[in-house]
Amino acid sequence: MPLMTDALIIGAGPVGLFQAFQLGLQEIACQIVDALPHVGGQCVELYGEKPIYDLPGIPVCSGRELAERLQQQIAPFKVPLHLGQQVMSLAPTADGGWQLQTSSGQVFLARAVIIAAGVGAFVPRRVAIDGLSAFESSQIHYYQTDAIRLQGQRVIVMGGEDAALETALQLADSGHCASVTLLHRNSRFKAEAALEQALQQAVARGVITLKVGQPVGIETAAEGSRLVALQIATGDDSSETLAVDALLPRLGLSPKLGPIADWGLAMERKLLTVDPATQATALAGIHAVGDICHYPGKRKLLLCGFHEATLAAFALAAYLRPEQRQLLQYTTTSPRLHELLGVAGSSART
Ligand SMILES: Cc1cc2nc3c(=O)[nH]c(=O)nc-3n(C[C@H](O)[C@H](O)[C@H](O)COP(=O)(O)OP(=O)(O)OC[C@H]3O[C@@H](n4cnc5c(N)ncnc54)[C@H](O)[C@@H]3O)c2cc1C
Question: What are 8-39's pLDDT values in tens digits?
Answer without folding.
Answer: 999 999 999 999 999 999 999 999 999 998 99
